[in-house]
Description:
Blueprint: E1 2-13, E2 16-28, E3 32-37, H1 44-51, E4 59-64, E5 67-68, H2 74-84, E6 85-89, H3 100-110, H4 115-128, H5 144-156, E7 162-166, H6 174-187, E8 192-196, H7 200-206, E9 209-214, E10 217-221, H8 243-255, H9 258-299, E11 302-305, E12 307-309, H10 311-319, H11 337-340, E13 342-344, H12 349-356, E14 365-369, E15 375-380, E16 383-387, H13 396-404, E17 411-414, H14 425-429, E18 430-435, E19 443-448, H15 456-461, H16 474-477, E20 481-485, H17 487-490, E21 491-493, E22 499-501, H18 506-511, E23 514-524, E24 536-540, H19 541-551, H20 555-562, H21 575-585, E25 593-597, H22 601-615, H23 629-673, H24 675-683, H25 688-729, H26 739-766, H27 769-774
Parallel strand pairs: 3-8, 3-9, 6-7, 7-8, 17-24, 19-23
Antiparallel strand pairs: 1-2, 1-4, 4-5, 9-10, 11-25, 12-13, 14-25, 15-16, 15-20, 18-23, 19-24, 20-23, 21-22
Helix pairs in contact: 3-4, 3-5, 4-5, 5-6, 8-25, 9-23, 9-25, 9-26, 23-26, 25-26
This protein binds adenosine-5'-diphosphate (ADP).
Adenosine-5'-diphosphate (ADP) binds next to strand 1, strand 2 and helix 1.
Amino acid sequence: MLELQHVKKYYQVGDTLTKALDDVSIAFRPKEFVAILGPSGSGKTTMLNALGGLDRYDSGDMIVNGTSTKKFKETDWDAYRNNTVGFIFQSYNLIGHLSIIDNVEMGMTLSGVGKAERKQKAVAALERVGLGQHINKAINQLSGGQMQRVAIARAIVNDPDILLCDEPTGALDTVTSEQIMQLIQELSRERLVVMVTHNPELAHQYADRIVEFADGKIQQDSDPYQESATSSAFTLKRTKMTFATAIKLSFNNIRTKKGRTFLTAFASSIGIIGVAIVLSLSNGFQKQINDTQTETLSKFPITISQVTTDQSKAQSSMSDSDKTAKNRGYLVAAKDQSESAQHVNKINTKFLNYVKNIDPEYSNNIGYTRLTGMNLLRQVEGKVTAVKFSNSDGDTQSIQQSLSSSSGVGVSSFPEPLTAGKNNFLQSNYKLLKGAYPKTATDIVVVVDSKNHTNINALKNLGFDVKNGQKVDFSKIIGTTIKVASNDDYYQKLPSDNFIPNQNLTSAYNNSKHQLKIVGVIRAKKSTNMGLLAPGIAYSDKLVRQIIQDNKNSAIVQAQKQSNTNVLTGETLTAQTKSQLMATLGSSGIPYSILIYPNNFKDKDHVLTYLDKYNKGKDKADKIIYTDLAGTMTDLTGGLMDAITYVLVAFAGISLVTSMIMIGILTYTSVLERTKEIGVLKALGARKKDITRVFDAETGILGVGSGILGVVIAYLATFPINSLLYKLTDLSNVAQLNPVHALILIVLSTVLTIIGGHLPARMASKKDAAIALRSE
Length: 776
Ligand code: ADP
């Protein structure tokens, strides 16, 4: 059934050639107990290893059941060891971190036998070797004889055709040796047993046949056998370790070294902790920056005013330095810097349409400030009085002031449409405190700030007699009506060609086409970055355009067009003040300024690019210059934060790599430590891949462990870090670990440690089983 034909195995070490097997030919019967005797170094173990497929022969052939093994592939040998051969070693070679049952089951586990069958067979084998009582003990609680019995149970559990024993009693006392020999003898009734021994007495007492070895050659054979040429069917079942088995093996191994494993996991988690903390910090800082940016955007929209300052000019004249100036004997009359940098934006219909076409993706809120005044009349207790209600009183200084401070008089207009829906400016950005949102052009609202304050002037102008700090019930305000009189009804012409408001406004009140009604009180939503409306009164832009439509051709506008003095006061006007007065009177629909609210900082850049495009190829005078205060204020912050994060992550990343190398070293140590186990697994039929898998599983477990540990520690560290930062900077909750980052880091740690451990794992798999088993 098993035959060696002219088998040679030489070892070349340096200059010496050792002929461990020197042309050995021998055949074995299917059932017999063969003892191999011979001095040490004569090649006994080498032959046993060759018979068991643990070691390859150099030349010759080995015939198993009539099949030549010359063409055996690696996996065939693995399967051969698993299916056909059982090994018993002098030093038992049990896997210490597995239970007795698991040790016995290992061969079956490798060949994929089901759990129940494994257990039943293992118990049967243990009972057979007389260990039925001790099944639940740990390996290190057994005596030498008992350990050898476990090893025998492991060897026979698969009912192999061949049992190979390498000095099975070499480490046992005489009494125990006899017991073991009896057991082996009993087993040889059912199969071929080949036993290497030093002990001629035992050999002669128990074995059927004695083969004597010397110098790699058979010297004597007590009962030679001639193999008949018949070959029986010989199929091998492939072995394959499942991943679950690999994990179980690794877990058990790790469990026996808890302290070391924890330290390793902790050390290699330091990289993860570093990266996690850096990420959570930059996360938090980025959030702070974004909040600030949003706030800035809402306070400082892109502004285009009819009169503006050309920042580039203002700056260039400032930075001009003239070194020869102090040597001059004269002075130079020069325009004030701010005056020379003044630029008049020619806002016309074409530009207005251009602005209207800004992609709503980037900015869907554009506000207009118009100088248009309204002739408002209010009837209180039957008496009609004029109400002052305009964005300005026509004086340039106060116009600019009121614009930059978002209307000192507390009047602003909001963009359309008024219909409810996603695009409704008020409904999406303002909370209704009382009443209703405006539905028509004549519906107006009172805007309050976060403390429910509103502009006192706006209330006074509406005809409410209020003092600073006075509380006014919503109900007293909502429902108030005012009328807008046309210029022609409101002003009367004097014989001097000047105009004055009518003394009796009752008919103007009665003639009015527009009755305005305060329909609600609103407050900006917390989430909005569109703080377009100043506290006070707000009406729709549509109303303003209607008023302009009404007044554009009125007598006073016509008269003012002709005259260079103010038709109301008789003051002399400059070109600029005249055009502003005309605008106040309602002569044109061109807004005084345009406020563009981009959705965020990125979108702002798109809007600016779009605006810059308008100026392309235009004369200096025709260019439209915008003011982007938000940009000037926060240009620095964003990029800086990114740069810092990259640098810190890179540093922390280095410690990750260090951890990886460390895991590699530790796995290497573990491989060295577990050389015997590798040998045993191989003897039981584990493939190279399976061995790699065991160590990969171990590093995988370690990687997941250290990743989770790192993330948990980093998370816990955010609390003291945050309280420290709060004390130092007043910023709360800066460090925030993003769960997605945490997950990525755990995966990263696992992948890196597996990579780090894979090389030693591959080394382990390449270990020569025969050498591994010889090692101590
Ligand atoms: P025995 O089992 O009879 O004591 P071995 O089969 O172990 O003898 O060894 C036979 C010879 O082969 C010895 O001289 C031993 O030194 C040599 N040998 C065994 N394995 C190796 C090896 N891996 N490399 C070099 N020499 C080896």
